[in-house]
Amino acid sequence: MKRVYLTSAALFLLGACQTVPSPHSPTQVLEKATSPALCANDIAEIRDDFLTARVSGCDINSTTAVQISIRPEKTTDPQGKPINNSAWYGFRVDPIQSGTLDVTLQYFNGKHRYHPKISYDGTNWEFLDERKIDKIAEDKTQISLDLDGRPFFISAQEIFTPKGHDNWTDKLAQKSFVTKSEIGRSREDRPIYMLEIETEPTKKKPYVMWVGRQHPPELTGALALIPFSEKVFDESKLSKEFLDNFNILIVPMINPDGVVHGNWRFNMGGMDLNRDWGPFTQPETRAVLGALERFKSGEKNIAFFLDFHSTWRNLLYTQADDEPTTPPMFARDWLKAVDDRLDDEIYPFTREARHNSGKPISKNYMYDTFGISAITYEVGDATPRSAIKLSAKVFAEEMMRLLLEHYEDKP
Ligand SMILES: [Zn+2]
Questions:
Q1: Where does CATH 3.40.630.10 sit in the chain?
Q2: What average pLDDT score do residues 179-194 get?
Q3: CATH for the 162-407 domain, from 3.50.30.40, 3.40.630.10, 3.60.21.10, 3.90.180.10
Q4: Does residue 22 carry a pLDDT above 80?
Q5: Confidence class for position 307, pLDDT limits 50, 70, 90
Q6: What are the DSSP calls for 244-311, one per residue?
Q7: CA of 225 to the centre of ligand 1 (A)
Q8: Within the chain, which residue ranges are assigned CATH 2.60.40.3120?
């Protein structure tokens, strides 16, 4: 029997409210665009001149209908395997007159995956009404958009740019015990930042580390990383005790170029960054490798690692129980503690305990190199945003409790 964790107010929010403020983006009211449109019919203009946009072609079907082509940045990975179906799209609509615009999303090398989101200001997002979406075929979806004069964005998920991440890290870096540093630059020379949380620099403490946004469209992973992080250093009693005993490294945005370009999967080198932990051929993964040097040299210890992602449903990929970790059985005990607190109706999740596949992914690399529990934290694409936030805090609290227990009597 599970204890219901959520308050009735939270349940109300989950049931009634689908408005999703994109975290820490500046609020802006969209002004009428002046740049040339990508295409236009009698009632609306379509544009893709903003960060994260993705439109591969735009054709006028009629005075009230357009067809937008959506293609990936590359059709295969370097091994020739078809690109993962994370069919990201994003465009802007500027109405010319009132009416209904029918937009057909035609996918190439992929299928419709993301429920369209709409925003009139780039900050507050809603899931587009189900009744406005018609899935004609796996690779073709039609959406009907009501035009009332206001310009708006349509996007596969909420727009959360590198700048949005930077605003968040800048705010956190105002705390005296948080340091923000640039650990490297992407292929297109965008900074990759790390937060280091260290309350007593002279005291030797083990580190925990988490990273995110290797895969550009995996926004719900970012929506978990933020409250997870904030819970750990909210300076509550538990947080203070945890920070008395552990230091933290956070790299929240590993693939800024991919995010800016609205990529489905890769960095600008055409690589899946989460298949590069081992070879480390890309500047983005090499930046993270540099941050790991302190652990590889034995100068510092690492106790736990998490990598935030998104997929069809909420799940955590862990080591199998017969793969020894330090602390022992951490994944099993952590997820059990969280499961006991979270209502299945609110945030159902599964543990997928998998043996090391030998693939050069972060989880395998961190386990092989340091013998720690290294977990991929996957959040469902359509999981209600308030549930992502609430559950991330529970995951954070139980991680802190369990790590404290395991390390309590050790030097
Ligand atoms: Zn991923």
A1: 162-407
A2: 98
A3: 3.40.630.10
A4: no
A5: very high
A6: HH-EEEEE--S-HHHHHTT-SS--TTS--GGG-TTT--SHHHHHHHHHHHHHHTTSS-EEEEEEEEEE
A7: 13
A8: 26-155
What CATH number should be reported for the domain whose range is 26-155? 2.60.40.3120
- The DSSP bridge partners found for residue 352 are 317
Residue listed under structure tokens 């209908």: 65
What residues does the ion ligand 1 have nearby, CB within 5 Å? 215, 218, 309
Helix (H) or strand (E) holding 403: helix 385-407
State both tokens at 334. 């952590």
* Distance from Cα 397 to the centre of ligand 1, integer Å: 24
Q: Rounded to two decimals, what is the model's pTM?
A: 0.93
Give tens-digit pLDDT for 147-163.
999 999 999 999 999 99
Q: What are the pLDDT digits (tens) for 324-371?
A: 999 999 999 999 999 999 999 999 999 999 999 999 999 999 999 999
